[in-house]
Write a structure and sequence with these properties.
Elements: H1 29-36, H2 52-63, E1 68-72, E2 77-80, H3 85-88, H4 112-119, E3 126-136, E4 142-155, E5 163-172, H5 174-190, E6 200-206, E7 211-214, H6 216-221, H7 226-231, H8 235-239, H9 244-260, E8 263-271, E9 277-288, E10 294-303, H10 305-315, H11 321-327, E11 331-336, E12 341-344, H12 346-352, H13 362-369, H14 375-385, E13 393-401, E14 408-420, E15 423-433, H15 435-457, E16 460-466, E17 471-474, H16 476-481, H17 492-497, H18 504-514, E18 523-530, E19 537-548, E20 554-563, H19 565-599, H20 606-629, E21 635-636, H21 637-647, E22 654-657, E23 662-663, H22 665-684, E24 694-702, E25 709-717, H23 730-742, E26 746-752, E27 755-763
Parallel strand pairs: 22-24
Antiparallel strand pairs: 1-2, 1-5, 3-4, 4-5, 6-7, 6-10, 8-9, 9-10, 11-12, 11-15, 13-14, 14-15, 16-17, 16-20, 18-19, 19-20, 21-23, 24-25, 25-27, 26-27
Helix pairs in contact: 5-15, 19-20, 20-21, 20-22, 21-22, 22-23
Length: 766
């Protein structure tokens, strides 16, 4: 079947509001208003006198679900559809049929000049992108959004210029713009590193050194050796590739950015090595020092040649309905469920990757290309739209596998079904490729998920201070770090109140420096908090940065905090350990010095002195080893005696009576040296010098006074007869004088005939 709808309207096409045989449209509010309107009172005249082009154009916009309007004739009389009415707010329906002079637009877009240029045949159309509009819905609700407005010529052979009117088509790009805004906000907030990807180049210009460091993609676009670009080259080496027509503009713009602003966003052309021209878009940020001087300029470059090619093609598009709709980036489809006839325009075929001309059964092609996971829900939505009991519209997003290259693309479709006698006689709509927007949304979700995982892994809390409202928002971990209940209202005063008094001024100074428009210093401080609810003291490490509005005034300060209490405690513990180690080393050296001085004297031969000195050092080392195993927190008397038995004949030579007693490090060292001296003397001269001899060690803990006291008795039996020595040696002096002084106690050695008896008494706190 041959589709004849693009061949023009038949001469007997009925005027708007008069359905032809076999076809009818469900009348909307504007359809009825237009049909009943007194057009004879307008410059357009009665509807019976309208040209076929005007009749067709009005039928087209009224049937469309998308916001569409016409400005027709030299006076630019306004006609619009139901979807366009919310854009007019309270001016609807007053402006219907009004001339431009009677009802000019109230939006920020200046459209009169471009529209008159189109009517005069001097322009093939124009586009106003990302225009912010507030719309009033039929239920009275107010909605803000962003729209692309495309002004396209509508052909009319009866008009002097061949153009009868201007088609005003609005495309809602709110989700794309909001996704882009969210992505930019995320990048500024967390200062994520620029990621190189296909078609993107990055640069970093050290302004003071005039060195541009660029990746390979950026270098190749500027005809610069990539290897040299990594090491940095003067800006002039890269500027050689600039198109002469763009050089002066970029030079002026660049100087302005370096002097007055921080953000850089420009589009320009580059001449490639093969002579071809590529369009690029660059976005960057200027970094300033404390004086406000620009020191670095970093950013990304994107190849927008294809986008520019499309834009130029749209500007030069032919003045007919097909190109006007095509210029909106939409593909049109039309389906008659009663006859099975389907129509896809050129743009629609391109979106699906289908060739021009006849194709297989369109329904089969459609179902074959839609992703299997999305097809059931999409078909259900189509059936629901064609159900007279439903709202007769469809708005779905789904994936397709493009026919020509197999690429997976996201498609969004809008459509409306029209009925006659309860039967759907026409189902029309448009499709658009929204892959980039979906990828941007997915990338935003991934970025936020990645950031959340990073914050979880690092046990990091985040905070956001609204300077104007003096309102402080914390993440869940942030509340915990300040010892506050989750969700409690907090302000800057609460923040300072929860801070240790000694740290407040330093933190206050860091926060003020971050909000200084000139300094714009990063926050990097450590401070203590005292929990408002739990009264616990914590150490916090905070990093942050201030953000400023267009006037240079501070708007927000955002950052992250980490609880470093354990680290601070570890540092303090380490300092204590080092100090303790220094003290113990000095004491050990003093002990060794005393042992050496008392051992190496003229009354003893050198071999004897060496043997005695070695034995005493071994005893000291054994005591140190025992304390080391206990982290120098003390030792048990039973463990100390066990080491003594191992060194001096074994457990069978000793009889011990007493329970477990915990000794301080100082007491353990002193008592170990004293027992070693007693054991050494017993091995040489006393009970341990004979196989029949034995040493009995008995002890008890006596309460009383500020601290309990240890009373230990050393008794030798079964050895040779003992007579008191003619002089006191080092061992006796160590026990009776040194031990008593060191342990705040008393010690006495009794040289009885049947064996040496030594009694030691010392306070247990050492």
């Amino acid at each position: 079947m041959v589709d004849t709808r693009d061949q023009g309207l038949a001469p007997d096409t009925p005027p708007l509001g008069t359905p032809s045989a076999g076809e009818a449209f469900a009348p909307g509010d504007l359809r009825e208003r237009i049909a009943a309107f007194d057009w004879a009172a307008t410059p357009l005249g009665a509807r019976a006198t309208w040209s076929l082009a005007l009749v067709f154009a009005v039928d087209m916009i009224v049937a469309s679900r998308f916001p569409s309007a016409l400005r027709w004739g030299p006076e630019m009389v306004l006609i619009y559809n139901d979807a366009y009415a919310p854009m007019l707010g309270e001016r609807h329906p007053y402006v219907l049929g009004k001339t431009f002079a009677e009802a000019p637009p109230t939006s920020a877009a200046d459209s009169e000049g471009p529209e008159r240029a189109i009517l005069a045949g001097a322009s093939g159309g124009t586009v106003i992108e990302d225009l912010f509009l507030t719309t009033i819905q039929p239920d009275g609700s107010v909605t803000d959004g962003y729209f692309n407005i495309r002004l396209s010529p509508m052909p009319d052979a009866t008009a002097p210029s061949g153009v009868g009117g201007v088609l005003i088509a609005l495309t809602d790009v709110t989700r794309r713009v909001q996704a882009e805004q969210a992505l930019r906000a995320s990048e500024e907030r967390y200062q994520l590193a620029l990621r190189a990807a296909s078609g993107v180049g990055t640069w970093d210009w050290d302004i003071l050194a005039d060195k541009v460091y660029a990746d390979a993609r950026y270098a190749r676009f500027h005809n610069v050796d990539p290897e040299r670009a990594v090491g940095g080259l003067p800006l002039a080496d890269f500027s050689k590739a600039l198109h002469p027509d763009d050089f002066a503009r970029l030079l002026k713009s660049g100087r302005t950015h370096l002097r007055t602003t921080n953000d850089f966003d420009e589009e320009y052309r580059l001449i490639q090595a093969d002579g071809s021209i590529r369009w690029v878009q660059t976005r960057g940020k200027v970094e300033r020092d404390a004086r406000g001087w620009a020191v670095r300029h970093r950013g990304v470059m994107v190849d927008i040649t294809d986008r520019k090619r499309i834009e130029h093609a749209l500007e030069a598009a032919e003045a007919d309905l097909r190109i006007a709709v095509d210029g909106a980036g939409l593909g049109r489809w039309d389906h008659n469920p009663q006859t099975g006839e389907r129509y896809w325009d050129k743009r629609c075929r391109e979106i699906y990757g289908l060739p021009e001309g006849m194709i297989e059964n369109p329904l089969d092609a459609f179902e074959r290309l839609v992703h299997p996971d999305d097809l059931p829900a999409l078909m259900d939505a189509i059936r629901a739209a064609m159900d007279p009991a439903g709202d007769n519209t469809i708005n779905r997003e789904y994936r397709v596998r493009r026919d020509n290259d197999g690429a997976l693309r996201w498609i969004e479709t809008f459509g409306r079904a029209f009925f006659q006698d309860g039967l759907c006689v026409r189902f029309v709509g448009v499709v658009s490729d929204v892959t980039e927007r979906k990828e941007a949304e997915a990338d935003q979700v991934l970025r936020e998920a990645t950031m959340a995982l990073a914050l979880d892994a690092g046990n990091v809390g985040t905070w956001d201070y609204d300077v104007r409202k003096r309102q402080l928002r914390w993440s869940e971990r942030g509340y915990g770090m300040f010892g506050m209940a989750l969700g409690a209202d907090v302000g800057l005063d609460d923040f300072y109140a929860a801070m240790h008094p000694d740290d407040r001024e330093a933190v206050r100074a860091a926060l003020l420096a971050s909000m200084d428009p000139v300094r714009r210093a990063d926050i990097d401080v450590e401070y203590r908090t005292v929990g408002r609810d739990d009264a616990k003291e914590r150490w916090i490490s905070a990093k942050g940065r201030g953000f400023f509005d267009d006037a240079g005034k501070p708007a927000r300060v955002v950052g992250a905090t980490v609880d470093i209490t354990d680290r601070k405690r570890a540092e303090l513990h380490l300092r204590l350990l080092v100090n303790e180690l220094n003290h113990r080393v000095k004491n050990s050296l003093a002990t060794i010095q005393a042992i050496a001085a008392q051992t190496f004297h003229a009354a003893r031969s050198l071999p004897q002195a060496q043997e005695a000195f070695s034995a005493r050092i071994v005893a000291l080392a054994e005591a140190h080893d025992l304390l080391t195993r206990e982290n120098w927190e003390g030792a048990d008397l039973l463990d100390l005696l066990g080491r003594l038995e191992d060194l001096h004949g074994g457990a069978e030579r000793f009889a011990t009576e007493g329970g477990s007693v915990r000794l301080s490090p100082r007491m353990a060292l002193s008592l170990s040296m004293a027992l070693h001296e007693l054991a050494t003397n017993a091995v040489k001269y006393g009970a341990l010098s004979l196989t029949t001899g034995q040493v009995r060690i008995a002890w008890t803990v006596v309460p009383g006074g500020p601290h309990p006291r240890l009373v230990l008795t050393w008794t030798e039996t079964g050895g040779p007869p003992v007579s008191p020595p003619s002089r006191r040696g080092f061992g006796s002096r160590l026990i009776e004088r040194g031990l008593a002084a060191e342990l705040s106690g008393v010690a006495h050695i009794d040289f009885r005939p049947d064996g040496v008896v030594c009694r030691i008494e010392a306070a247990l706190d050492g």
